[in-house]
Amino acid sequence: MLIAEMILVALQSVRANLFRAFLTMLGIIIGVASVITMIAIGSGAKAAVDAQIDALGASVLSVRAGSFMRMGVAQSGAKLTIEDAAAIASDAPSVRAVVPEIGGQPQIKLGNRNENLRVVGVSANFSNVQGYTLSSGRLFSNADDANRRTVAVIGASVPAKLGSTESAIVGQTIYVKGLAFTVVGVLAEKGASGFRNVDEQLWIPFYTARYRVFGTDQLDSISAQMAPGVSVERAIVEIERVMRREHQILPGKDNDFSIADPREFFNVREAAANIFAILLAGIASISLVVGGIGIMNIMLVTVTERTREIGIRKALGASRRNIMLQFIIEAMVLCMLGGLAGILLGSGIAALLAKFVGWNTQVSPLAVALAFGFSATVGLFFGIWPARKAARLDPIEALRYE
């Protein structure tokens, strides 16, 4: 009951000096709002990275041609071929499926609209390996690939870039390097993957791309999907063994190719985003400490202003413990009110950033609880000194104070 009365007195004190209380709480409000906003940005970035990792599909490794050293000089004559892809598929037990990729960025035309978009020639199993889902129409088949048919599956953003819509573009004819292709399907939105936005790509049958569009047998990359339960390290060792054999690389010589797990790119991004969020949250926490110092200063002023009141309370039987508890509760009430206002402000800023700036933000309940708890702790810590000063006042001297 005593605690409830003290809280009520503290609230009445805040109401009686509303503007001063607001200025006192301002540091806490800004600190809590900053912490909430920064953690929301960091959590949103992490969620976006996690979504991109999930969108990569089930454990896909990418094999690319790379430079190699000869006589101390970097050489770039290495290339990937369809035979490399076939060898990986047949001789690497850890690999479940392989997709050879050959691509470029030719001019794409639909009606009077022209765009330079990336076109990728792939085998018919590309959607399963890469984790793509179909939104409209159909995927091209093995028969389309074997017969070198001019059919295309396009990314979710391509219809708008060509001045059409998803429902209208299926069945239409587009021109790739002057060759007519029929759009047979549109993939669901997937977003950026690594350094490319796959929603702005077109996929055509591999042999159509090889013989009718690009006229080369050199692959850009080979996507290798690992079998379930296989470790990344084991799959990389098996692929490397097959590739070194196919490229006739002698023991002790450097590889003329590279094997990468695309998820590593996102993991690095996630780690950087986490470090950045922690750094910003740490900087924002300084505002809470500054706000706590402001609380302590104003509470010291309050003790001086209410010296006679303290003397009357002591004369009426209030103990040191009662006086000290009263001032600590008042400091904590100020900080917690500031914390609540900061939570509302920080959540509002996070929502505005998501709506108008397009940032992915997530206000975490844990972050809200931590920020509020920290603000209460600040009130407790910085309220102790003023409370002790009030509790140690001599009642006779306090009653004489003018």
Give the SSE map.
Elements: H1 2-16, H2 18-55, E1 60-65, E2 68-70, E3 73-75, H3 82-91, E4 95-104, E5 107-110, E6 113-116, E7 118-122, H4 126-130, E8 134-137, H5 142-146, E9 151-154, H6 158-161, H7 166-169, E10 173-176, E11 179-187, E12 192-193, E13 196-197, E14 201-205, H8 206-213, E15 221-226, H9 232-246, E16 257-260, H10 263-305, H11 307-315, H12 320-357, H13 365-391, H14 395-400
Parallel strand pairs: 7-14, 9-11
Antiparallel strand pairs: 1-15, 1-16, 2-3, 4-7, 4-15, 5-6, 5-10, 8-11, 9-14, 10-11, 12-13
Description of the molecule:
The protein is of the alpha+beta class and 402 residues long. The chain has two domains: 2-52 and 267-400, no CATH class; 60-261, no CATH class. Helices cover 56% and strands 19% of the residues. A hairpin with a 2-residue loop joins β12 and β13. It is elongated and about 105 Å long.
